[in-house]
Amino acid sequence: MKVLVGDIGGTNARFRLLEGEGHQWCLRHQSTWSSPRFDSLEALLEALMSNFSRLEKATIDEAWLAVAGPVRAGRVTFTNLPWQADSQALAARFGWNRVSLINDLEALAHAVPSLGAKELMPLQHGSPGNANCLVVAVGTGLGVATFKTQDHGVDVFASEGGHIDFAPADPDDFRLLEYLRTRYGHISQERVLSGRGLADLYRFVCDEQGAPPESALLEADDPAAAINQRAESAQAPMAVAAIERFSGLLGRFLGNAALFSAALGGVYLCGGVATRLYPYLTNAAFLDAFLDRGRMKPMMERIPVWTIASTEVGLNGVTALATRYAVTGMPIDACAVDHLSQAQS
């Protein structure tokens, strides 16, 4: 049995081709692709399949795809890509018996309970209990899900919590809200707490301080990564100010999200933007904002908060689902060389 698994975000799409049955699985292929290069999910999958042998393509039974958008009745409209996809149409086009589309944060949450200490970078130790956990991904977008570990596995509750309204809490926030409204109209938390949001926040900070933004940062392929790298030089006060402001806003959002999900089991932060900003999240601005919940502060102090170091946790989650939990984040050995498959290439 061969299964294709994928974690498809607004920036990167990661895939594995697995072969096995029951608790015995091996890895035949793994690759990462740039999602925006393609006009559709179908076009991306066609390019991916061109790397497989004819025999491999002919013997794929199922595809499990974690997708960055809400899934309804096997259909998804991607939030940060101009794509739509239908599971039945994909199965018919590629000749697979089954295609399962899963919200990316829902899939990711299935890998979190198996993470080891080396994959978790602490922001607050707290006192975890067997309670709800919150996972928030900050990358191209802002993803939110809640999960709880049970005897039978993991119960996951996906959401679109990243699209709730941005809620100003001080005069600076109100000015930021008005600044963004002139560009976008409705301002969600994702408009602020994402890679694109960090770029807009950098523009706003420069405008507030009367300093021209560095065009090279905003014109980079990944402006958020460029701003972070520039801040590390210690010669870019506007980049540093934007990241520090971002950290405080993220801490406040996580604090509110932890309250409404009763995440006493812990908060897990992941995604490319969050992972790169980890050194700034260890500063007071982030944790102070997280804890600033009035009478609830003593409860907030008991909630552990971690940043997930792995960039493959989403792929590990959908792998766990596809293999019916036989593989939950552990390394998968490469398949033995199949000379017949090579001959059919």
UniProtKB/TrEMBL annotation:
GO terms for molecular function: ATP binding; D-glucose binding; glucokinase activity. GO terms for cellular component: cytosol. Its EC number is 2.7.1.2. The lineage of its organism: Bacteria, Pseudomonadati, Pseudomonadota, Gammaproteobacteria, Halospina. One of its GO terms (biological process) is glycolytic process. Pfam families: Glucokinase (PF02685). InterPro entries: ATPase_NBD (IPR043129), Bacterial_glucokinase (IPR050201), Glucokinase (IPR003836). This is Glucokinase. CDD domains: ASKHA_NBD_GLK. ATP binds at G6, D7, I8, G9, G10, T11. Belongs to the bacterial glucokinase family. It comes from the Bacteria.
